[in-house]
């Protein structure tokens, strides 16, 4: 299966599948989702903003995500994984507290004192650079729903098939360009997949 050259190219291709959107608000999940979302917003002549999310990590191995949280929402947990690890949501409460603190810090970095655009009654497109476990996307979609939008679309260039199916129960529509059988990680489907910084995000949004 052909690779995306980079996130910007993936966003341009994804935009072609979103042309029917009506005056949408585009919310990008940082950091990689921002680089995908900017060309979409340009093509759709739409507002783009960051929706900050944070992974909730397994305390002995924080890189293993047991859930996620998005601004304006509540923690979302992979309950099957928690059970296998012998954990409960209560047992990772301290991790959640720390991630809420870091989430608030990143909101200040990316938006300052500006709130998210009004979402009630609007069509909202949530954008990320790919779906592996789907925890952050699930947390984001649920947080957006709390604001009362007319429609929530999740748009990603590539995703694991099982994750895409599960998120079709969360969003009104999931738009994905590739669902490869041999999916192992999001980055494997990009020829260039560098790690972005906060400064990169601000530059992409025209705030640097």
From TrEMBL:
Q: Does the keyword Transmembrane apply?
A: no
User: Which InterPro entries does the record match to this protein?
Assistant: PRTase-like, PRTase_dom
Gene3D superfamilies reported for this sequence: 3.40.50.2020, PRTase-like (3.30.1310.20)
Family matches, as CDD domains:
PRTases_typeI (cd06223)
- Keyword list, A-Z: Transferase
Which GO terms label this protein's molecular function in UniProt? transferase activity
Work out whether the entry's keyword set contains Aminoacyl-tRNA synthetase. no
Pinpoint the Phosphoribosyltransferase domain residues. 9-177
| Pfam families linked | Pribosyltran (PF00156)
Quote the protein name from its UniProt record: Putative phosphoribosyl transferase
Source species, please? Nonomuraea maritima
């Amino acid at each position: 299966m052909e690779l995306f050259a980079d996130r910007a190219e993936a966003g341009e291709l994804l935009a072609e599948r979103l042309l029917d959107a009506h005056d949408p608000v585009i919310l990008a999940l940082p950091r990689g989702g921002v680089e995908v979302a900017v060309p979409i917003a340009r093509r759709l002549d739409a507002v783009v903003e960051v929706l900050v999310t944070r992974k909730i990590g397994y305390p002995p191995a924080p890189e293993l995500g047991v859930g996620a949280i998005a601004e304006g929402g509540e923690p979302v947990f992979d309950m099957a994984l928690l059970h296998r690890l012998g954990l409960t949501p209560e047992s990772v409460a301290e991790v959640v507290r720390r991630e809420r603190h870091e989430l608030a810090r990143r909101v200040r970095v990316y938006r300052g004192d500006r709130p998210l655009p009004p979402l009630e009654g609007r069509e909202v497109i949530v954008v990320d650079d790919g779906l592996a476990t789907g925890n952050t996307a699930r947390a984001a979609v649920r947080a957006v729903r709390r604001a009362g939008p007319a429609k929530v679309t999740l748009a990603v260039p590539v995703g694991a098939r099982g994750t895409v199916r599960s998120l079709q129960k969360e969003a009104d529509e999931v738009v994905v360009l590739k669902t490869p059988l041999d999916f192992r990680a999001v980055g494997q489907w990009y020829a260039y997949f560098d790690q972005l910084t906060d400064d990169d995000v601000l530059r992409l949004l025209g705030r640097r």
